[in-house]
Amino acid sequence: xxxxxxxxxxxxxxxxxxxxxxxxxxxxxxxxxxxxxxxxxxxxxxxxxxxxxxxxxxxxxxxxxxxxxxxxxxxxxxxxxxxxxxxxxxxxxxxxxxxxxxxxxxxxxxxxxxxxxxxxxxxxxxxxxxxxxxxxxxxxxxxxxxxxxxxxxxxxxxxxxxxxxxxxxxxxxxxxxxxxxxxxxxxxxxxxxxxxxxxxxxxxxxxxxxxxxxxxxxxxxxxxxxxxxxxxxxxxxxxxxxxxxxxxxxxxxxxxxxxxxxxxxxxxxxxxxxxxxxxxxxxxxxxxxxxxxxxxxxxxxxxxxxxxxxxxxxxxxxxxxxxxxxxxxxxxxxxxxxxxxxxxxxxxxxxxxxxxxxxxxxxxxxxxxxxxxxxxxxxxxxxxxxxxxxxxxxxxxxxxxxxxxxxxxxxxxxxxxxxxxxxxxxxxxxxxxxxxxxxxxxxxxxxxxxxxxxxxxxxxxxxxxxxxxxxxxxxxxxxxxxxxxxxxxxxxxxxxxxxxxxxxxxxxxxxxxxxxxxxxxxxxxxxxxxxxxxxxxxxxxxxxxxxxxxxxxxxxxxxxxxxxxxxxxxxxxxxxxxxxxxxxxxxxxxxxxxxxxxxxxxxxxxxxxxxxxxxxxxxxxxxxxxxxxxxxxxxxxxxxxxxxxxxxxxxxxxxxxxxxxxxxxxxxxxxxxxxxxxxxxxxxxxxxxxxxxxxxxxxxxxxxxxxxxxxxxxxxxxxxxxxxxxxxxxxxxxxxxxxxxxxxxxxxxxxxxxxxxxxxxxxxxxxxxxxxxxxxxxxxxxxxxxxxxxxxxxxxxxxxxxxxxxxxxxxxxxxxxxxxxxxxxxxxxxxxxxxxxxxxxxxxxxxxxxxxxxxxxxxxxxxxxxxxxxxxxxxxxxx
Length: 879
Ligand code: SF4
What we know:
It is a single chain. The chain is of the alpha/beta class. The protein contains 29 helices and 36 strands. The strands form 9 sheets. The chain has a 7-stranded mixed beta sheet, with helices on both faces. It has a 6-stranded mixed β-barrel with strand order 23-27-24-26-25-28. The protein has a 6-stranded antiparallel beta sheet with strand order 30-31-29-34-33-32, with helices on one face. α3 packs across α21, α8 (214-227) runs antiparallel to α11 and α8 packs parallel to α14. The radius of gyration is 27 Å and the shape is globular. 58% of the residues are buried. Bound molecules: iron/sulfur cluster (SF4). Residues 7, 9-10, 12-14, 37, 41-42, 44-45, 170-172 line the site of iron/sulfur cluster.
């Protein structure tokens, strides 16, 4: 049976055609009819069926780690929340939500806290992702309105990608851009990013600017547009306000393009070319994400971009507009319901008593919150200070993802009541939970999500809930009922919640509010179940949705005019010092998602990058005497990070480092990027400055390194300085390194792994190899070797699935060179398992294009996520 659903990873919101098999498993492919992806899926989406199954799931409610009935768990949560509220007031409790929740879950949580508990202490991990973009839109348009559609990316003549490694983080949109450029070779692409990322493969121009100088770059552009007489005076006059002040502010900052270039550390000619292209092209889309948002001046960065679009009137028509792209699958749905602490509901906020009154009457909630609540970073500080005494965390892992994770875990340790709803059994945050509530996961959940182009789609349940897992909206509603709010939370089906959400969007909305889906206020279950993707607003005038906003030049400010915002130059707060001389940039990698709770279950998704790493420029590597592949340590007074060095020739600027955001204590000994980042936030949006930390860098000098492979169910404790885990299905692989000398390998194995069945020791070559067998079945293998390259372990993996090892197989286990081991090199194409060595060989044999490589090896022919890397290898090999 086929069901159409939506990918739960990034904000592109691809439609997934799921084939539910009789065996209970599912197959996935792209939904050809979904307007976000038209059948495409990236590698993460293609591996969705690989992250399912009961293994690793939270299967029943727990109180103090003891399984209890749902009734007991709900009693515990509701009674302790009620007691805390009655003793300390409503602001002593909080919810911390997630962009992975469905809109219906989000709606119910927000309604309970803001409407009935009477506090606005509801915030979400989306604060870390796009809150600066929200604040920028609200300042400019009077509303949190994304003006564009994905098809604008294809209709544009100039695409400006700012702070966005689209090729890795929004791969399907990147593929759409690639296809558009192929179809229209005159389409120009400019990438603005301190790093030369895979996205630059598409770029006609790459501006490798100094980190956190984005607003100055765009203020310089505004000034240039005025100097060159390229402003749209009619548009400015008719539809905007505040232009003179914004322009004066931009002109005060810089008196020439070369001054901007100097400030941003760019080549003046390259910058002039970008400015000329922007000035000369009508159809411009500026596409921006975390590189713009995760900054002390994230909101200003957004407005500096929007200012340029307003000044040229490049908004509200096909192929034009300032387009913020969200990271998370339902960040937009969370915004719709008011899931941020400074929002109320349905795109209404606390800025007017009328808004509060409106929502209060709609919800019949006399105890509604009156003021904004605590934003994410403030919230966890308030928990540590004892001001917030009960927190309910749903579907997110703040012990890993927030800045200063040490402070966050201290706060959770101190907090009298921590409730965590999650589908997985083991996350760092769950370790601090007094009450754990098993939630349904993707393939079980049922509701709606909204992607980055305002398109609402259904996420449909495909399989029955695992164990005793329940839907988040159900869990929240049951707690609400037990707290005494029975009437307002008597939902029986998510369709009822969606209908109420739709009704609120239209309630007393005379066109002054952008978010309006009132046409669905009477939706029944059948219609909800057959819901087709649609872009809001969906109104009587636009019953099939709205692709583009502001076509009429009418905005949602009191004057109905868009506002220019004067931007002042500002510097990052986390400035380097002699003790912390390196700028730290953080971000996602191609094949992992957030803190890997879900993507970390698919072995395929570890093949591209399987260890935490640090990217650094070769000049810095030389200075610090670090070679590619060596282990390095990043340090900050708050915490440390260990990862494998990736020395870059030109991709990384000097003095700047990049680390992935995903690894954490569940997967590695010391690799939480949040441990290194200070809790510095944008003063308007509250979004952390995660793109500009500061650290010191040193080489790790382990006495030995090695690797361990064992059955995944083996419980082991690894007392080494560095370990990093790579799940490979039934087998788990660990990289190991330690500065403490391994004096007696056999004793070490016995202590940490169990009885040693066979071993091989060569003190001269520093090699030690051992394996443990239970009967004839392989349990673990442990290899210590001189510091250097780790050979392929594929053959050995296969040995773990043998029910009985032959004498030859036993002999070869410890003899890495004795069996046929093909080292694939770096895994480039995860879909077809094509490594760099095979690609280089194929190029040598005459494959001179991506298409030719695809014909020969199939690489790049499924999800296409690896095409930029294929191009990079081609460029290097054919040079
Ligand atoms: Fe999922 Fe990839 Fe589509 Fe994002 S681009 S929604 S991760 S398939």
